[in-house]
Amino acid sequence: QFLMANKLDTAMWICRLFTVYCSALFVLPLLGLHEAASFYQRALLANALTSALRLHQRLPHFQLSRAFLAQALLEDSCHYLLYSLIFVNSYPVTMSIFPVLLFSLLHAATYTKKVLDARSSNSLPFLRNLLEKLNTNQQNILKFIACNEIFLMPATVFMLFSGQGSLLQPFIYYRFLTLRYSSRRNPYCRTLFTELRIVLEHLIMKPSCPVFVRRLCLSSISFISRLAPTVA
């Protein structure tokens, strides 16, 4: 009854579980490398479907207007719909599947707990314990996802020069990264950029750091800072 009463949430839950399943079979290619590539695409397509359903839930009344598009781009679900479309037809990159896998795992765990509560307050204690441990480490997982989002930017540039990516991919991914940086619900990308800058500045200001390395790093920090969007 609980699942039927929340059909959209249940559909997203099933999609997220399928995303976790496909992502796991890509990261651990138990069925062979050829099959792993197809599981990579399936995971991203399932994530795109989940993101589209979540976006529909957040903005149920679609309008073909600039205002609606601007509102949609503020939603995290729109960001990961774009993310899935960026990588779904690209060369499989293990780093790109981790945000999809971990976000799906976190959201699926949250809804699984609701399903267990609807069934019985004491049902499946072993599973409840696993879900609780996952929830306890949520902040570290979100930081790891943000780290993946950041380091995928130079990875897309490397893929371009190695012949495994398209010319547009780094530019579209840069747009995705600016959306994540400006996210209202998830500040971890912004936080990680700040923490990485503090750590790097601390390292290059040591006397043992060569002057040319310090200048190169300071120039890079200044360049990246200029690219960062303004956050209200």
Automatic annotation (TrEMBL):
InterPro entries: PER33/POM33_regulator, TMEM33/Pom33. The chain crosses the membrane at residues 12-33, 80-106, 150-174. One of its GO terms (cellular component) is endoplasmic reticulum. Pfam families: TMEM33_Pom33 (PF03661). It is a multi-pass membrane protein. It is found in: Membrane. This is TMM33 protein. It comes from the Eukaryota. Belongs to the PER33/POM33 family. Its main location: membrane. PANTHER family: TRANSMEMBRANE PROTEIN 33. The keyword Ion transport does not apply. GO terms for biological process: endoplasmic reticulum tubular network organization; membrane organization. Signal peptide: none annotated. The keyword Transmembrane helix applies. Keywords: Membrane, Transmembrane, Transmembrane helix.
